[in-house]
Amino acid sequence: MKSLRASGHQLAGTETQLQLLHQVVTDQLKLPLFHEKLETAGLFPLRPVETAVFQVNVGRMCNQVCRHCHVDAGPDRREIMTRDTMQQCLDALARTDIPTVDLTGGAPEMNPHFRWFVEEIRALGRRVMVRCNLTIIVSNPKYHDLPDFFRRHEVEVVSSLPFYNADKTDRQRGKGVFEDSIKALRMLNAVGYGMPDSDLRLHLVYNPAGAFLPGTQEGLKRQFQRVLLDEFGIRFNDLYAITNLPISRYLDFLISTGNYRGYMEKLITAFNPAAAAGVMCRHTISVSWDGFLYDCDFNQMLDLKVAGAVQHVRDFDPEALSRRTVVINQHCYGCTAGAGSSCGGTTA
Ligand code: SF4
Ligand code: SF4
Q1: Is residue 4 part of a domain?
Q2: What one-character-per-residue DSSP string does 222-275 give?
Q3: Which residue positions in the chain have pLDDT lower than 50?
């Protein structure tokens, strides 16, 4: 399977995605636009609070081509953050006291400067989280020592596992992914990740396999913990339940399966003001592989840069960014439905 970009798909264009989202809300469903919903909740314009997370997308290259990927990542993507841009990120971080750096991709470990970057961030005294897809660890001998590298640098590992069986996981993420994910989880457990009495944190990310909202985060966590321990002897700390946002390859999935309109209606009717108040863009800055700044990873994939004059990490200005208004659009309904959704799970 190829990325949308490599196959020349019309949804590879961000303008097309934004137009489709606008059309379905206004012309087909005749429901309020996202900013109107925020207005009714007293949250428009949406303003940031103190930045807690500096999220860096170090590249769109990935060893997998998951069906729902909002990054449109894959082995055919060549966009990779250079060491110079990483240095600009480090310089920006040094001018702030943002406590957490969240590294994502693609598979962030495929960036040749990934380990150097982690070491430098740790040298600044910041906590590092990595969005590790698990299979990268077993994909090639050069990555087999990643669990030990993570352990030595006290990196927090956050990994997608859509379900606790091969059928559902492989349908979404590719053949053999479940088996390789289990192997990688065992390797992480073996060095202490997710184990009782260990400070090494291992979290799983659940996202629905179809066009529906996730069940309760706490219930899913208990279910995953029980099955993964009983059947595979695997332990983890927390589980984040994430709603699929209607962009990129998940938007393609919704349209091709005839679920697009129904899914948007579900998201909009499940709008929750409490979830909206806690959206992650209020406390996150997201940096793209080429150094541009966004309010979140989803805006990054839609090329919706932060509002204001400072739009690149080389010009990072925490003061100016704190005065910005968050850029929103119709995809934001994915973050505010039900219990809400963010890179750290529910928001309400
Ligand atoms: S592992 Fe993550 S980044 Fe890679 S294709 Fe799957 S969802 Fe996208
Ligand atoms: S998609 Fe991004 S900008 Fe929109 S509500 Fe979610 S986190 Fe905020």
Answers
A1: no
A2: HHHHHHHHHHH----SEEEE-PPPSSHHHHHHHHHTT-HHHHHHHHHHTB-HHH
A3: none
Q: Whole-structure pTM over 0.85, yes or no?
A: yes
Query: What are the pLDDT digits (tens) for 265-296?
Result: 999 999 999 999 999 999 999 999 999 999 99
CATH of the domain at 287: 3.20.20
In a domain, 1, yes or no: no
Q: Which of 136, 173, 244, 289 to mutate to test the pocket of ligand 1 (most atoms within 8 A of CB)?
A: 173
13 Cα to the center of ligand 2, angstroms = 19
What is residue 1's predicted lDDT score, i.e. its pLDDT?
80
Question: What is the 107 CA–ligand 1 centroid distance (Å)?
Answer: 7
Query: What is residue 138's predicted lDDT score, i.e. its pLDDT?
Result: 97
In a domain, 346, yes or no: no
**Structural domain total, the chain:** 1
> Could you report the per-residue pLDDT of 101-129, keeping only the tens digit for each?
999 999 999 999 999 999 999 999 999 99
Ligand nearest to the CA of residue 53, numbered in listed order: 2
278 in contact with ligand 1, CB cutoff 6 A? no
Q: Cα(77)–Cα(48) distance, rounded to whole angstroms? A: 32
Q: Whose CA is nearest to atom 5 of ligand 2?
A: 332
**Which atom belonging to ligand 2 lies closest to the Cα atom of 327?**
3
Q: Where does 50-142 show beta strands of DSSP type E?
A: 53-57, 100-104, 127-131
Q: Which domain range does residue 22 map to?
A: 10-335
Whether 340 maps to a domain, the answer reads no
**Cα separation of 278 and 287, whole Å?**
20
